[in-house]
Design a protein that fits this description.
Rossmann fold, 3 domains, 6-stranded mixed sheet, 4-stranded parallel sheet, 14 strands
Length: 411
């Protein structure tokens, strides 16, 4: 908590956020606030979802990007802007630049999801694919800025970016004036810092909780050290908050204003995404689901009403498919079984009939007949089942054993 910025940095204050809001009038949407009955029951207090996944470009990033580019001098606008991003910041910069009539170049990693690349181009940016990891992409963007004079638009470490993102906080206080806790995901920290500035100035009693993915959590060690530190080996499905080092300015604000920063597992992230889809009917990317994951992981002792910020909804369909499978497995809704059967006609049909009675959906069936452990008249069958949850899994396995089957639960 001892980290201090240079005196040359002017702090971000409430007036900056209010000014950003005026600038964003007619540009950024005032996104919906939706109640969640399931989370409210879990937490024991009203829980509301702030739906920035429904913002233009699919995330909060347009807010900060528009404010930042709006503040450029005429000669800077003439030189154009450049950014590096795997997705959300890229789209925010592209649309903001188009709306302001500024030329934009966006560098994206070679492996960036094709829908995000296509969307960034459609918003008007000149997209260039460089690097296998975001650090290489960032280097390419900064080299371009140095060579051409284009203004580099940082995704989180700039006061105008933070002020723009802070408009989310003003909307929260207006839409849920009785709020007592706000939970928000943290990557570099721009969104959390902006919300912190707005909320602390107007409602200092509100508890602020930040959330990071366990596999990409730079804030806990940074807060312990009292300064931003880098972490290596980042590994998380939540690429929107996959940042190896906090921004200097966001870190100073979060260290000063936030009550807690928590981490969540990959299982919790996938379960949260599944919950948003099934219960709230909202498509949310893993980073956007991080606050919900935190509520699922530690639901008790949180003063309500609670607002969880769903920061974005830009998720690649192929990744969504994998995450949903992971989320269903984490929620105990998949069951893998091995059974030994007599290898004669009708036995498998009888087994499948038993599963139908138990209301378990068969996803896959495989046979093993050549294992030396099997008798001459035996076959081993492996089943992948979709169930209704952990209790149903136990019921299925127990009922099959009671019917005389030798059952091994896999995993």
């Amino acid at each position: 908590m001892s980290f201090r910025l240079s005196d040359t940095f002017r702090p971000v204050i409430l007036d900056d956020v209010r000014g950003a809001r005026k600038m964003l009038a007619g540009v950024a949407r005032t996104t919906a606030m939706e109640g969640s009955r399931h989370l409210s029951q879990l937490v024991g207090a009203p829980v509301h979802l702030k739906c920035e996944n429904l913002q233009r470009t699919g995330s909060f990033k347009l807010r900060g990007a528009y404010v930042r580019i709006s503040g450029l001098r005429p000669e800077e606008r003439a030189a154009g802007v450049v950014a590096a991003s795997a997705g959300n910041h890229a789209q925010g910069v592209a649309l903001a630049s188009s709306l302001l009539g500024v030329r934009s170049t966006v560098f994206m990693p070679m492996g960036a999801p094709l829908p995000k690349v296509a969307a960034t181009r459609e918003y008007g940016a000149d997209v260039r694919l460089r690097g296998q990891v975001i650090e290489e992409t960032l280097d390419a963007a900064q080299e371009y800025a140095s060579r051409t004079g284009a203004v580099f638009i940082h995704p989180f470490d700039h006061r105008d970016i933070i002020a723009g993102q802070g408009t989310v906080g003003l909307e929260i206080l207006e839409q849920c004036p009785e709020v007592r806790t706000i939970v928000v995901g943290i990557g570099g920290g721009g969104l959390a810092a902006g919300i912190g500035v707005a909320v602390r100035a107007l409602r200092p009693d509100v508890r602020l909780i930040g959330v990071q993915a366990e596999g990409a959590a730079a804030y806990p060690p940074s807060l312990a050290a009292g300064r931003p530190v880098s972490v290596d080996g980042l590994a998380t499905m939540a690429d929107g908050i996959k940042v190896g080092r906090p921004g200097d300015l966001p870190f100073a604000i979060i260290a000063d204003l936030f009550d807690d920063v928590r981490t969540v597992s990959e299982d919790a992230l996938s379960s949260a995404l599944l919950l948003c889809l099934e219960r709230a009917k909202l498509v949310v990317e893993p980073a956007g689901a991080a606050p919900v994951a935190a509520l699922l992981s530690e639901p008790h002792g949180i003063a309500g009403p609670v607002v969880a910020v769903l920061s974005g909804g830009n998720v690649d369909p192929l990744l969504m498919q994998r995450i949903l499978r992971h989320g269903m497995a984490a929620a105990g809704r998949y069951l893998s079984l091995r059974l030994r059967l007599t290898d004669r006609p009708g036995v498998l049909a009888a087994l499948l009939g038993s599963l139908s009675v138990l209301d378990a959906n068969v996803l896959d069936v495989s046979h093993v007949r050549t294992d030396p452990r099997l008798g001459l008249s035996e076959v081993e069958v492996e089943l992948q089942l979709e169930t209704k949850g952990p209790e149903h899994c136990a019921e299925v396995a127990s009922s099959l054993r009671a019917a005389g089957y030798t059952v091994t639960v896999v995993g």
